[in-house]
Task: inverse folding
């Protein structure tokens, strides 16, 4: 029996800043996981990965990550490593947790 | 200190220029990431979890004030105002931007520094005893040899694509502070029966997935034979080391699978061949290197300031007890500056702290600083009479933590707070342990204890050789920590043994506390150290203390 499909989003690092980024519905990237576009089928994952990998001039190391879905429909990480990537290190208030403005990217 | 020759200078400047052009070509799309990645790694630039990371070589851990000030400048101008000193005596910046890296490398070249061979399957930065040239127990300063090895290994055309990375450590003292037995090659400076200086050569040590204590390949190698013998070891490894499996590619596996005697025979055979091509280094080179590391002109003026301050100031006395080591000149002391304040990140220094350290080195320390593999900074030559002033300045800068060699002097790798390879976090574990034992006020009573934490099996935090080692793993999507006991990174090197099942993050500190409590209960006297107790009694009393509930459950 085929394993049940788990919704996924595409993540990568920004080539210039190194920061974690997430692929949005319009094929551009956000620094915030909440803005990531959710793939609901293996085919959608493939298509989105192709879009991501078509941008080698601005991103590095795109991959699909499994997620959980919040009550408001936004994606949330389902592993601690991905959770850390949404936020930054725990020893200093650096990285995303400090950089993301209320308006978002 | 060694000063760059014209050759060194132009080599480093050329590499900066090459990398500048490589970055430009990556940005304009001429280079793909697959093409660019090996080039950036050759220049110490990693892409980590949240950002790029630049790893800068500090050859054999030696810095002068100008270099330390430049690191502070880089931290302020292109990073977030701090740097992280590593267990390989290097420094890492955690937040550089790709476009700025060529500028950073240029700024490093201005003070004779670089990030070359800090990554990749090549001979990495040669590490050395951080007390080199100062220690009372030293036979000979290992740094002229370390510098010779740096020159030999830098851009060595044959050894840029070894089966795997290759690490060399050297000590000139019988008390091994450089963990030589856990390196691909460890060199110990010794003298033969005739009193001639040479090296004991240890090969095939290493930590990581398959920890091993190195094997003695040569009990005595005459000094003049060093380079052909090193060349022989590397050639045997380069030809025979496994390239089919990354996890079996280090020389320790080759030595282990082939057998020590067999490998020794291969090396000796290659050595005879290599000796034909290697003349001993020319006398002027050897003399030049020795002159570069000649001891400073010591000031032996007598003064009672040191003794007086100790009798009047309990905090200073306590600092001296742990942080000042015996210098070969009785009028001097070696001051270890702890980068482990309670609750802080092991190995981190702010740019302001770096400047304070540089100033102190210049004013009181013959312009010398060292980075230790234990992630502290050393002022190797401080006149005892000046130590009270140094202490006062350190205190002002938040650098006077008196814990060297004690429980809170913890080694920790960056772990999953930064590292892309990590399977769990290390830094918060170190912070929690230090904070908890600060509350208990037990540290001095516990005495010498080395806790070492790695956030993955690669063991950058040297957990295998910690008296108490902690390894962070991902167990079914949750951070989980295994404990090893009885490890030792000194001349009596031993790999620690796992206690049993790991602990969830919230159960780890209580487990460490239980281990310490058990130690305090079973030690013969206050002088019997944790490691001595472990060697006397084994793991049993500690296992009983941390797996109590399970034992009770079984009994029920």
Result:
């Amino acid at each position: 029996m085929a394993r049940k499909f788990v919704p996924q989003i595409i993540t990568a690092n920004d080539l210039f800043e190194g920061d974690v980024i997430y692929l949005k519905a319009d094929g551009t990237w956000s620094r915030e996981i909440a803005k990531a576009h959710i793939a609901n089928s293996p085919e959608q994952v493939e298509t989105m990965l192709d879009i991501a990998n078509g941008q080698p001039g601005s991103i590095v190391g795109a991959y699909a990550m499994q997620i959980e879905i919040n009550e408001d429909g936004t994606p949330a990480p389902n592993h601690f490593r991905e959770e850390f990537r949404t936020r930054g290190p725990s020893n200093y208030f650096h990285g995303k947790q400090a950089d993301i403005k209320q308006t978002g990217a | 200190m060694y000063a760059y020759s014209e050759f060194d200078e132009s080599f480093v400047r050329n590499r900066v220029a090459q990398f500048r052009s490589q970055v430009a070509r990556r940005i304009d799309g001429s280079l793909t990431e697959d093409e660019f990645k090996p080039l950036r790694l050759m220049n110490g630039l990693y892409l980590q979890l949240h950002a790029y990371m630049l790893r800068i070589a500090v050859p054999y851990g030696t810095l002068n004030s100008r270099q330390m000030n430049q690191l502070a400048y880089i931290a302020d101008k292109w990073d977030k105002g701090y740097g992280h000193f590593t267990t390989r005596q290097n420094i890492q910046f955690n937040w550089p931007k790709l476009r700025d890296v060529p500028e950073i490398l240029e700024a490093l070249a201005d003070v004779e520094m670089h990030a070359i061979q800090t990554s990749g399957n090549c001979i990495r930065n040669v590490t050395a005893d951080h007390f080199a040239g100062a220690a009372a127990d030293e036979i000979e300063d290992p740094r002229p040899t370390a510098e010779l090895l740096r020159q030999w290994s830098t851009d060595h055309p044959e050894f840029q694509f070894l089966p795997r990375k290759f690490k060399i450590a050297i000590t000139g003292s019988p008390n091994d502070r450089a963990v030589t037995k856990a390196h691909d090659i460890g060199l110990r400076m010794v003298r033969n029966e005739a009193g001639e200086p040479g090296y004991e050569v240890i090969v095939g040590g290493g930590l990581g997935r398959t920890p091993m204590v190195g094997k003695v390949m040569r009990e005595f190698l005459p000094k003049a034979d060093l380079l052909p013998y090193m060349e022989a070891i590397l050639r045997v490894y380069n030809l025979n080391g496994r390239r089919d499996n990354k996890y079996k590619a280090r020389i320790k596996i080759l030595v282990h699978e082939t057998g020590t005697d067999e490998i020794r025979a291969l090396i000796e055979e290659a050595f005879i061949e290599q000796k034909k091509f290697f003349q001993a280094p020319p006398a002027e080179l050897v003399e030049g290197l020795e002159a570069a590391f000649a001891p400073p002109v010591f000031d032996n003026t007598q003064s009672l300031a040191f003794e007086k301050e100790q009798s009047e100031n309990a905090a200073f006395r306590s600092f001296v007890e742990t942080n000042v080591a015996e210098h070969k000149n009785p009028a001097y002391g070696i001051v270890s500056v702890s980068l482990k304040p309670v609750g802080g990140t092991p190995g981190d220094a702010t740019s302001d702290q770096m400047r304070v350290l540089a100033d102190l080195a210049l004013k009181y320390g013959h312009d010398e600083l060292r980075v230790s593999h234990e992630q502290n900074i050393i002022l190797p030559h401080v006149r005892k009479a000046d130590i009270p002033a140094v202490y006062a300045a350190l205190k002002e800068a938040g650098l006077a933590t008196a814990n060297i060699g004690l429980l809170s002097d913890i080694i920790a790798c960056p772990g999953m707070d930064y590292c892309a390879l990590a399977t769990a976090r290390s830094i918060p574990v170190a912070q929690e342990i230090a904070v908890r034992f600060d509350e208990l006020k037990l540290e001095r009573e516990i005495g010498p204890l080395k806790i070492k934490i790695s956030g993955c099996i690669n063991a950058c935090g040297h957990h295998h050789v910690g008296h108490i080692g902690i390894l962070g793993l991902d167990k079914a999507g949750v951070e989980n920590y295994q404990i090893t006991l009885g490890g030792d990174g000194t001349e009596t090197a031993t790999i620690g043994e796992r206690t049993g099942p790991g602990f969830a993050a919230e159960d780890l500190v209580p487990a460490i506390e239980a281990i310490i409590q058990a130690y305090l209960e079973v030690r013969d006297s206050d002088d019997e150290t944790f490691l001595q107790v472990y060697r006397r009694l084994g793991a049993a009393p500690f296992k009983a203390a941390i797996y109590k509930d399970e034992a009770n459950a079984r009994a029920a």
Residues 305-396 of chain B form a domain with the Sulfite Reductase Hemoprotein; domain 2 fold (CATH 3.90.480.20). The two ends of chain B are 66 Å apart (CA to CA). The interface with chain A takes residues 26-27, 29, 32-33, 47-52, 80, 94-95, 97-99, 345, 416-418, 425, 427-428, 431, 474, 477-479 of chain B (CB under 8 Å).
